[in-house]
Specification:
Chain lengths: 394, 394
């Protein structure tokens, strides 16, 4: 039986000052003790952490703290969080930050009620059966982790690092407090990178090997058009509330399942997997890594179904070319130009990485586990295909 | 603090044969005894109830049954359901049908753990604090009750009948099994009426008195365009899977909160309230009642913000007229023509009702509780306004 599941239980509170609801929401959930989890300084400096702490205290919620999450969040820090949760009777983890903090919180949540090594869940040895529930105060529009089932963690215990994901419905946050004003201070580069990530979550779902639901295609195109338009506005004026609000909500919708509803396969995801190798080894911003690869992937797989690229180009950019192959080229060019307008690289060298042929082969072998697995389903990629894509993207 | 909440916890299983998952899903939820609740014959004749019963039995789920739900579901039948649930230890209600069966199930769910009269929740005397959880096997694309917080019940214990709603997050079903093939047998009239209801859930949200989120406007327009296109297809070929699938998913999205995300007011809803008086007194199909009123409401309130009507017309019908007032007129005309193409009435007489001025005043006084309350927020309506709208819609 082939069906699609849609499950988005996260209770979203969206608008200015919603971070102040943290204590009340946790109290209503009858939480006893929270782990307040955050990044490397900006949430402290901006005063946001102070607001959240005050909200917890006012509502009588006890809490411990763990800061220091970096982009491409590390296993070693998550292990510290698991230790704190196990020893201090934590029954809820509140992530204050972007996707890295959320993914780290999910890892801590999985590891706390588990007797074994939490990395088991990321390298596919085990499937988690429990989690310490997660909530979010979101400060970055990008990964959609505030509603998604996904957590991606980088193991800094091996060289080169491994970056693996664990996707389960347990990982969907219980609530997300989403105040677009908290993203006013996000830099131009991180804004562009975040928007690329948002777009890629929908693009990865759009290209798949099954039948399509017209409503989902239309919503996907609405989302992509809106992100393109509002990223440009946010880059011009970082404090444009409407632009930041559109990006924030688009980030959640792009990865909560809405943009693959009715697509039985769930998407392709080859670009994400190829990028994970780049960011595991070179620690680049995820969105920038995605834009460096996408157009090379697209040109490599285009022949599989140029009509699908043409449809996307018509819906998003109004491309009217009737020859599917030419329309597909125009579509790929348009996305490439868009990423460039966001200030993103569209080749790996734009990340400051000199990807020799040997490096391309190393990345391809890492992505395919030395040929043991393929990537994608729109077109299935083997090691040689991955190598050719990395080479084209140099 | 002005914010929007988005909360859609319903776990959706979407695709052919998903009704067969009923027993397994209930077993996973550790349900002990179900009330199987349904309508007046079609689910039995089609064999659907047999499939669902077999699925429950195979999974060891005990169940009682209550059929007989009619369109505009009645309080008296819900009372019977409450009695069954209270005396037979029911801990889950499985609605097999459309919005009427779901709304009746929600009413039974509210009433079972409550010592007082369940009607208290509908006439606003009390707010429910508990519910016996609900699941759905959906057979009609219309009300969106399978993901919404809404239950609308008609009291057949007073003359003329009262039709009131109870909206709480408790009322959102735990799961919904959505097989578009189950709607192949829906008549042309019910298909048109259902699609009108779907469109109205988005239209009622689009017209409101606050700022707009561009992404939500774009998604709303995508949904409306898709419903218009696919209703025509389903009317031509009732067994067109893609058309039925688009309508079914649009029905859920149109009323689960997605199409008012970022709109703080939550929508206008005056048309729904005016229509509830029509269907309470004359027992008409809800969607048909809505199309009979909408264009008269729209022409009456248009002057409040013709630019909003113009924006909708541009997004949905591609209307390029630059004069906002003229564009608003063209937009209203286009929706009116669309409802007619669905086979729906656009005046009350098209429902077979001779609405004299006295009848219009009776309906207006009923809707305003004799002047005690106003309707709407895009433009606030008083009794005289409601009377004028009913008169224009005669």
């Amino acid at each position: 039986m082939a069906y699609t599941e849609y499950f988005t239980p996260t209770h979203v509170y969206f608008g200015p000052e919603t971070e102040k609801l943290a204590g009340k929401v946790l109290k209503d959930l009858k939480v006893r003790k929270v782990l307040l989890h955050y990044g490397s300084g900006s949430a402290e400096k901006s005063g946001l952490l102070g607001v959240v702490r005050a909200s917890l205290t006012e509502n009588g919620i006890d809490f411990a703290e763990l800061g220091g999450v970096k982009p491409n969040p590390r296993l070693s820090l998550a292990r510290k969080g698991i230790e704190i949760c196990k020893t201090q009777g934590i029954d809820f983890i509140l992530a204050v930050g972007g996707g890295s903090v959320l993914d780290s919180a999910k890892c801590i949540g999985y590891g706390t009620p588990y007797d074994g090594d939490v990395w088991d869940f990321y390298c596919g040895k085990k499937v988690p059966e429990k989690i310490v529930p997660i909530g979010a105060v979101l400060t970055l529009s990008a990964t959609g982790s505030e509603m998604s089932n996904s957590s991606v963690i980088t193991s800094d215990e091996v060289t080169p690092n491994d970056k693996f994901g664990c996707n389960t419905n347990l990982g969907r946050p219980v609530f997300a407090l989403m105040n677009p004003e908290l993203t006013y201070s996000v830099s131009k580069y991180q804004t562009g990178s975040g928007s690329t990530d948002i777009m890629m979550h929908t693009l990865e779902r759009f290209f798949h090997n099954g039948p399509n639901l017209e409503l989902t295609d239309e919503i996907a195109a609405s989302l992509l058009r809106t992100v393109i338009e509002n990223t440009k506005r946010a880059l011009e004026n970082p404090c444009d509330y409407d632009a930041r609000a559109n990006l924030m909500w688009a980030g959640s919708l792009s990865h909560n399942g809405l943009t693959h509803m009715g697509y039985v396969s769930g998407g392709d995801w080859a670009c994400h997997r190829l990028e994970h190798e780049l960011s595991a080894v070179y620690d680049v911003a995820h969105g920038a890594g995605l834009s460096a690869i996408w157009s090379s992937w697209a040109r490599y797989v285009k022949h599989t179904c140029p009509e699908r690229f043409a449809r996307l180009g018509r819906l998003v950019f109004g491309i009217r070319e009737t020859d599917a192959d030419k329309a597909a080229d125009l579509t790929i060019d348009s996305f490439e130009r868009t990423f460039q307008e966001f200030g993103m690289p569209v080749r790996i060298r734009g990340l400051g990485i000199d990807a020799s042929d040997d490096v391309c082969m190393m990345l391809a072998e890492k992505a395919s586990l030395k040929g043991a697995k393929t990537l994608g389903n729109f077109q299935i990629l083997r090691t040689e295909d991955m190598y050719q894509i990395f080479k084209a993207a140099k």
